[in-house]
What does this fold into?
Amino acid sequence: MKAMVLAEFGRLDVVEYPDPVAASGEVLVAIAHTGICGTDLHGYTGANGRRVPGMVMGHETAGVVAAVGDGISGFAPGQAVTVNPVVVPADDAQAWRGREQQHPGKYVIGVKPDVVAAFAQFVAVPARNVVPLPDGMPTTHGALVEPLAVATHAVGRLNLPDGPVLVAGGGPIGQSVAVVLRQVGVRQVLVSEPAAERRELLTALGVTALNPGDAPVAEQVVAVAGRPAVAAFDAVGSSGSVADCLAATELGASVCLIGMATPRLDLAAFDITAAERSLVGSFAYSSVDFEVALERLASTPELAEVLISRTVSLAEAPATFAALASGDGTPGKVLVEL
It folds into this structure.
């Protein structure tokens, strides 16, 4: 099979790899589409320290069942599936259901260096991490389930009162949060995003896009919504984006931190203590979040189409990574067709 390997930071090569086989308890998936995640780009550049040269990345994926290992039933060759990349030990799977992302012994397909992941034509994964796609859902949409699961978990971290909700950052995760907020019925979603191309995409999603370069975000939220936001989601994770979320929310509001742009933050402490705001963390997702994200996505295919900017071939993928890493202006998700 062909696979795209991180030959060195800043260089990806498409090479021949041995075809994997489905061991006992595994399903062999023929990969159709895999999304390029922001963490993949950071791994490509070496910026995040979570990817190493020699590995095959890729964790936002969908394909079809190619074969099943011993002891596996319920899957048929050709069946369309997606893959939940968060893997916990088999003996703990049931006990940790709903909180797999917190398991100290978990690994993530696409992050664990010795696991050939989804920028390859075939991947063998534990059957418990393979999730069938609903009839008629294209694999292009199936590759969006993982980032939407991140957003589903984040939105579930807050008890959202009725009123406007702010999202700081309109990149792929901010876009996914905006989609999930629409799916759960939030009537007024405002997203702060400096890039014009991304603001156009956000507008197509049916949310209000704000340019933080025009005026302070807090002032724009009040001007548009007539009041501060009742909650906020920071999909950037910088001191500036957190400050915008705190300033733009009402007293007693909650701010969910999803983005991890910087490992340390400078916080205006009184904006939390004196205003009784809560700062809540959100990391990855559980298997329940993953299933909910898939179910909701199946009911809103029109939103999925907006999220996908383009699809490229495996041969084009190395150059696409280089272009994305240099900031080529692509507003949404790029999928690699395997």
About this structure: The first strand starts at residue 2 and ends at 8.
